[in-house]
UniProtKB/TrEMBL annotation:
This protein's record includes keyword Transmembrane helix: yes
GO molecular function, one term: oxidoreductase activity
UniProt cross-references to Pfam families, sorted A to Z: MPAB_Lcp_cat (PF09995)
Residues spanning the membrane: 211-230, 301-324
Protein name: ER-bound oxygenase mpaB/mpaB'/Rubber oxygenase catalytic domain-containing protein
Organism: Baudoinia panamericana (strain UAMH 10762) (Angels' share fungus)
Length: 328
């Protein structure tokens, strides 16, 4: 949401108001799950390939609609300032967000580091998705190139505006207290700050959570690291974990009544830009849950880690003390 030009397009679709943003995020996650389901899924004719083609057509429809409205009403959308909606640069930024940013920012900030082969494989997947969706792939030929593109875009494209603040806070509000995790706004903000840094988060107007929620985020990182590295150490466990998570995420995102209710999105042109459609700051429109499973789990992980460190420190102190006494 920090890319000033991109959010001007998103704001005009209305897809990130608090009433519909959660469903919009579920649809995006469905697309990701379909693209990573299997090799067959991403080949021509597969579910991942088909959904990517639909997203490409959706982008074309949004682009044409906004340009048509801009040509008939001055001030609706400034093409000179913001460029053609969903242009090649915007598309490259989106691909990088789902690939390079994950590899070199999001995962490392949670303590997870991919191997060289994993980086190459993941960039290759998104290079192919970029090709199918009609995005230039010249700067995605290798992990190093993808990283350089990410760094260039972060430097030149991330300039949050007031619209950026509205969009970012709407995402927090639409997820607050909602299933399956029932995370609080404070925890969601702590998560965003942990992954994006304080400077960008301040520019987006995100709330500053207390140290308690930072501790919960530390607990989440401990849980993620333990889960990831334990399974990675045993390839058979890793394969079973991946298969299990794919099924669980699909059930949660697509099949569950609080997700897409069993109706797979076909990425229809339902968020139609209109002269009067400009996304505004909203409030959570659904009933909020207060019993957060995610926060309880992270607190347990944090306390276990602190306890283990305390025991380890005590044992180390006793060992060193014994050695010192035996010497002197």
């Amino acid at each position: 949401m920090g890319a000033a030009r991109v959010v001007e397009t998103l704001a005009r679709t209305g897809g990130f108001s608090t009433k519909v943003a959660r469903g919009r995020l579920f649809e995006t996650t469905q697309h990701l799950l379909q693209c990573t389901k299997s090799v067959e899924s991403i080949k021509p004719g597969g579910d991942g390939w088909a959904s990517t083609i639909r997203v490409r057509l959706l982008h074309a429809a949004v682009r044409n609609r906004i340009l048509k409205l801009a040509s008939t009403r001055s001030g609706y959308y400034d093409v000179q300032a913001w460029g053609i909606p969903i242009n090649d640069l915007d598309s490259m930024g989106t691909i990088v967000t789902f690939s390079a940013t994950l590899i070199w920012l999001s995962l490392p900030r949670q303590g997870v580091f991919l191997s060289r082969q994993e980086k190459a494989d993941y960039v290759a997947l998104w290079r192919y998705i970029a090709y199918v969706i009609g995005c230039p792939t010249d700067h995605l030929e290798s992990p190093d190139q993808a990283r350089r593109l990410m760094e260039a875009l972060l430097l030149y494209e991330i300039h949050p505006t007031e619209t950026s603040k509205i969009m970012a806070n709407n995402v927090i509000k639409c997820l607050e207290g909602q299933p399956p995790g029932y995370a609080s706004a404070d925890f969601l903000s702590a998560s965003a700050r942990w992954l994006n840094g304080s400077a960008l988060s301040d520019a987006l107007g995100l709330m500053r959570p207390s140290l308690y929620y930072w501790a919960l985020m530390a607990g989440q990182c401990i849980f993620v690291c333990a889960f990831s590295y334990t399974n990675r150490a045993v390839p058979s466990w890793d394969r079973k974990k991946i298969d299990l998570l794919k099924r669980v995420f699909w059930q949660v995102i697509v099949d569950a009544k609080y997700g897409l209710k069993g109706k797979e999105s076909t990425f229809e042109f339902k968020y139609v830009p209109e002269y009067t459609t400009i996304t505004e700051l909203g409030e959570c429109v659904e009933e909020k849950g207060t019993n957060s499973y995610v926060e309880r789990r992270n607190l347990k992980a944090f306390l276990i880690a602190v306890g283990a460190m305390g025991v380890g420190t005590f044992v180390a102190f006793k060992v060193v003390s014994g050695i010192v006494r035996s010497i002197f």
